[in-house]
Amino acid sequence: MRTFQIVCVGLTALSGLFVLWMAKAHRLPPHGLPSLVHNDWYSDLLTSLRLMPMVHDPAFFDPQFGWIYPAPCIFIYQALLMPGILMRHFTTGAILMYWGAICVGIGVIASKVLGCLRREGVRRRDSLGLLATTTLLSWPLWFCIHQGNIEVFLLFGMAASVWLMYRGRWMGAAAVLGFVAALKLYPILLLGIFLSQRKYKAVALCVVVFVATNLLSMQYIGPSVPAVWAHLAPGLASFKQLGFYPGYFSRDYLCFDHALVGLIRVLTSDNAWLMTFLSKVWVPALAVCGTLAYALHVRFQPVLNQLLFFVLAMVLLPPKSYDYTLLVLYVAWFPLLLLAIRSSASGVRVPGLKAILSIMAVPFSATVFFQVGGVYFFGQVTCVALLTLLVLSWKYPMTLSSLPENGWRMRAI
């Protein structure tokens, strides 16, 4: 636990000193830093909110505006817009609602974490120090808020689903996961845990909730489900097209991308032929390799290994994955932290655990100082850290040998 905090503080301090040095050396914005840092705050949020008045209008699908998110995201943005309607000041109300929802979500998670750490015998001062380090120095959280992205709400939903799993409430976990996966598809990977535990009814419920949420949201947008899907499909496909864009991609954006495809792009200098080739084979290859990896190895690992494997796949393997998606790693980080505490208390060493927790500090911290000749590559450093974590999760069982097979079910959470 202490090593994780030291690495987080050290990396953040280095980034802070680097930013101060750059600001002194380059007096005009963006001070030699990636231009995205100096974009307007809440840009993603405000761009999407401007479309909300047109939800039931054909203009909602106009390419000029370009709604490119899954239909159920409408519910999140409509909820954020409600205070603005009452206040008659849409932007201010939506931002206040956004901050309020984030504070409530973090507050609920923090209370659960503090209670769990107290039951594990961790001193309150140490618990509060850990929470302060994890929250205030969290690069993915602050980047998410800066962009006004709704990825933080996926973290809350996934955390609730995993918490319910750890309490043995599989049907509730499945219902929450189905809704969260409808917002953005990648959380559906957690169904692999349900399958390995033979919770087939819960899997069926998750699929039903996922489908129902999508159908209801598309019917809400109108005029009909087929019509909405015909308009949404091209927008959703644009994510893949952007990830494999065969031309030059600005490093000002690529440095915030920790996806494996981004690392390949950097190492091959935007090779147009390779990007075109990957656009055709990436998804089928991932489907085949992922299925084989799960069937032959992952499903036989401890559940904590499975959880870590799946959240790493969520942030590594999409064609594009900006730094706010790293928030989902927290749903695996806290169970790993609990395992470390119990390992220390029992005197049973868990091979690889200390290395995993130390390396996880890299994606959670600001690492903007990774640049050479004005070219930033901290996203690619994060990618290498994530790949290392993937290898470690594959190799080392994250369990205490003194616990039974289902010892992962931590009732204290």
Q: What are the salient characteristics of this protein?
A:
disordered C terminus; mainly alpha; 2 strands; 1% strand
By secondary-structure content and strand pairing, the structural class works out as mainly alpha
Number of helices: 18
Summarize model confidence as the mean pLDDT: 86
Overall structural domain count: 1
Annotation, overall tally of beta strands: 2
Radius of gyration, CA atoms, in whole angstroms:
21 Å
Shape: globular
* Strand line-up across the major sheet: 1-2
**Helix and strand run:** HHHHHHHHHHHHHHHHHEEH
The main pleated sheet reads as: 2 strands, antiparallel
Which regions contain 5 or more consecutive residues with pLDDT less than 50?
402-413
Topology:
Elements: H1 2-25, H2 43-49, H3 73-87, H4 90-119, H5 124-136, H6 139-147, H7 151-166, H8 170-183, H9 191-196, H10 200-221, H11 225-243, H12 251-254, H13 260-267, H14 272-296, H15 303-316, H16 330-346, H17 353-364, E1 371-372, E2 375-376, H18 378-395
Antiparallel strand pairs: 1-2
Descriptive account of the structure:
- Strand 1 and strand 2 form a beta hairpin.
- By secondary structure, this protein is mostly helical.
- It has 18 helices and 2 strands.
- Helix content is 66%, strand content 1%.
- Strands 1-2 form a two-stranded antiparallel ribbon.
- The longest helix is centred in the first third of the chain and has 30 residues, at 90-119.
- It has one domain (2-395).
- The radius of gyration is 21 Å and the shape is globular.
